[in-house]
Amino acid sequence: MSDTTATTIANKSNLERKTIRRERLKLVLKDKTFLFGAFILGFWIILTIFGTFIAPHGAGDQDFKFVSHSPSSKFLFGTDANGRDVLSRVILGTRLIVVMAFSSTILGTVLGTSLGLATGYFKGKFDMIVMRLVEAISAIPVLIIALLAIAALEGRSPTLTVIVIGFVFTPNIGRTVRAAVLGESELEYVAAARLRTERTRHILFREILPNVLPPIIVEFTVRLGYAIFAIATLSFLGAGVEYGSPNWGSQISENWGNIYSNVWWPTAFPALAIASLAVSVNLISDSLLEIFEL
Amino acid sequence: MSTTPTIEFRNLEVAYTVRRIDREVLRNISFSIAPGEAYGLVGESGCGKSTAAFAAMRYLPRNGKITSGSILFEGQDIVGMSTSDINTLRRSAISMVYQNPATALNPTIRIGDQVAEVFELQGLSKSDAYAQVEQALIKVQIADPKQVMRRYAHQLSGGMAQRVVIAMALASNPRLLVMDEPTTGLDATVEAEVLDLVRKLRKESGTAVLFISHNLGVIRHMCDRVGVLYAGALVEQGATEDIFSKPSHPYTVGLLRCIPRGGLHKNTDRLDTIPGTPPALGTHFTGCVFADRCALVEDKCRTTQPEMVTVGGAHVARCFHTDKAGSMPRAIDTVTVSVSQNPNRATTGTRLLDIDHLSKAFTQDGNAVNVVNDVSLHVGVGETLGLVGESGAGKTTIAKLILGLYGSDSGSHVVLDGKDLAGTLSKRDVKDVGAMQIVFQNPDQALNRRHSVTRIVGRAVQKLRGLSADASTDRAHELLSGMRVEATLHSARPVQLSGGLKQRVAISRAFAGAPQLVVCDEPTSALDVSVQATILNLLVDLQKQDGTSFIFISHDLGVVRYISDKIAVLYLGRVVEFGDSNRVFEGPHHPYTEALLSSVPNIDGSVRKRIPLTGVIPSPSNPPSGCVLHPRCPRMAGSGVEHLCTSAEPALTEVEPGHFMRCHIPLDQLRTVQTA
Questions:
Q1: Which of A143, B269, B435, B524 could bridge B532 with an S-S bond, Cβ 3.0-4.6 Å?
Q2: From the DSSP assignment, how many helices (H) and strands (E) are in chain A?
Q3: Which residue of A has its CA nearest to B279?
């Protein structure tokens, strides 16, 4: 075959590749579920980063002339029983829950991925023992483990909460990753890597890991949703976060008694914030599930 | 002809919607099948064969649609037919046999219930249906139907499962039977049995058959008329004899030329190829669909679509040059890349690899299963050893044992260049690992789909040659370009490459460490024949240039014969015959080899007497006593040594110089019966 024909083929294949990518990108950008979720999440992430500049008042600023004041032009979301601006407290509460949710999920994903890679690749007795332990832990509800751990460690520190939630997520993520790794490690590129004297660590993290990323990404977004829920619940119960910090769960627990006297706003707005954050994450994970065809 | 054809495609066009764009899959297809006729559709993958099969039942995938034209079943257009009418037709008049019997059967329903369902749909009562099932299974030559009816799909062998599927397809006494690659996943011996069965049933029932296959040999033996598909267009059609003896479309000619036919050998013949690659799905053509790859292309071909031209009788071809196609210039590719970079190679023919008493037992449910049994073979420098045998014979396991991917049992020795290698990979040093590499069957699985081509090959160079990262990348580019993977594709991921290019990348990787021996495990069986030819040529070039030895595993005896210098025939983890390629192919053969050879549907049309192997391959966990072949042996009866065959396992003995056999029957006696 002449060089020119070969080049034509190469160009054709290049063209094809670009076409496929363009078509898929179009599909993602057309996916309303993804766009909507990303839009809301993006909004909360901006508040996480720039919240302190955006919030009109400080979290603890009290104005006793306006106690349990309904939403107005001065206080868009109204004020709570202590005369604090609900809008500012919602904005400033963003950082804690977003940072905690992301860090705990990242921790759980890193640990779970390592666990899944090891069990799925080595199989055998090691896999069996670890998986039985994992099943035992998974049988207990997440919140109960978290509460027990936090109580036992007498912690109100967010760091501790993050670590506990991260550990609690590990078995679930580990199981998902293990299932994917089991299939991958049978494929011949792994044998090919062994046949060029690669170390196990290289095979696990450089060869197999990139191929199991789609399920890990989806699992990450699903767990992120759970983390938001868990952190909000824990802070509502007064556990896991420092007392008096502006967080959505505590705001609800402090104020929900006032709903009966028609002061709904200090409860409703943080609740809406939690709901919208959780929904945005779930929308993203739904559309990723579809795009990755899992 | 006055009779109405059973099915007729009239200017049929089918499109698939992929990523929301319609892509043409079938382009203006017209053909018809008369009652009782077998019509074959051939072509390489992606040319629309299966789409045509599904269209015949109007059972296209959800994203497929008929954009124009009509399909007439006994004169009745089924394109516009209501769903209930088409269902009636599918229930009573058209049946289909799919490629993979394992997935065509429901794994959770017993075979009996599954087949009975077809009869119940025709209104039979449950007990009547069951009686019919038994008859139907007997008809497809299942020896013990009562017992088979109680089994589940996974308890059947591939051939048995395909018989059940055929029984189901025939249950409704269909007037049209669509068979989509019905024997592609089956072993040669089983394939031959299934094809015999189909031929016999067709004679009995007079059913019209639409037979889809990529295997020209199978088509030649099964069909009355043939249509050749390329890129969704019917490019040639005619009686089977005419197509094979006087192909008149350049594509058909190319297809026939690139197959390693019996007798061709790498030392004397180079395989033809079809340059270029098939067009992407849904490419739009203003001229001839084949123009880009045609050796006879003219300006006219690119601008005007050729009409069907009559070549003679009912033989038609869609080409401007039907008269010249048969004598078109040969397309031969050459390749030059030095893989060894090492001039101090041993001379061809000296012993490179010795395998002594290689054994492997796997533990299954606490029992040891001997998958490889005392295999002793040797390969010389620059030689190719072909390993053949049905699936489960232990071919791949032997390859993995040699490479050290599995640890062999004690007493086994793998000696490379005089050095006794450790049993497992981790205990071998880098040099020895690099000296023996493998090209796997399926490049999709063998290449990491997240890595670029450069990285895949470069990493292997780096690890096996101990070069720096930069030097490895340079060497990788050199290797890849030498194997005709263009520089523009070096940064691509495997998914962006065609099957043939992927296999070239896999070969480049195998040659990264300047290996002395490369195991090729069915390297071309996932590829189309034209691509297969280029890959085989590449391997032969590499061997001639650098004296690399190959162990070549394939179920395709034509390919093995073409590329091998020595052949080892395996059965149940044992070597039953070993010797020079021509010795093994010319005979006298071991009875198993004889049966294997006789089961291959020959592309040149010569009819060989079939030597059938009865029964199924026994399980290696419970091998027969004596000679493991004896329950199936076609030559045992009347040999006079039956008592030996059933009681003692024969040893691998040198029956003539350089020709080893594991058989009690004396060579001269085999020679006499086999030439009779």
A1: B524
A2: 11, 0
A3: A12
The average confidence (pLDDT) of chain A is: 83
Give the pLDDT confidence score for residue B485 in this predicted structure: 87
pLDDT at A13: 47
- What's the domain range around B35? 7-223
Task: Quote the ipTM score.
Answer: 0.81
Nearest CA in chain A to B281: A16
- Burial zone of A41 (CB within 10 Å; 0-12 exposed, 13-18 middle, 19+ buried): buried
Average pLDDT, whole number, for chain B? Answer: 88
Q: Which domain holds residue A17?
A: 1-30
Q: Do B405 and A195 touch (CB under 8 A)?
A: yes
CATH code assigned at B546? 3.40.50.300
Nearest CA in chain A to B495: A17
Residues of B within 8 A of A194 (CB-CB) are 405, 425
A111 vs B496 pLDDT, higher one: A111
DSSP letters, B135-204, are HHHHHTT-S-HHHHHTS-GGGS-HHHHHHHHHHHHHTT--SEEEEESTTTTS-HHHHHHHHHHHHHHHHH
Which residues 14-73 of A have a C-beta within 8 angstroms of B? Answer: 14, 16-17, 20, 23-24, 26-27
CB atoms B464 and A196 under 8 Å:
yes
The reply to whether A18 and A116 lie within a common domain is no
pTM: 0.83
Give the start-end residues of each E strand in A30-125. Answer: none
Paired tokens of B86: 């088409």
**Statement to judge: residues A26 and A167 lie in one domain:** no
Length, in residues, of chain A: 294
The dihedral of CA B605, B609, B615, B621: what is its sign? negative
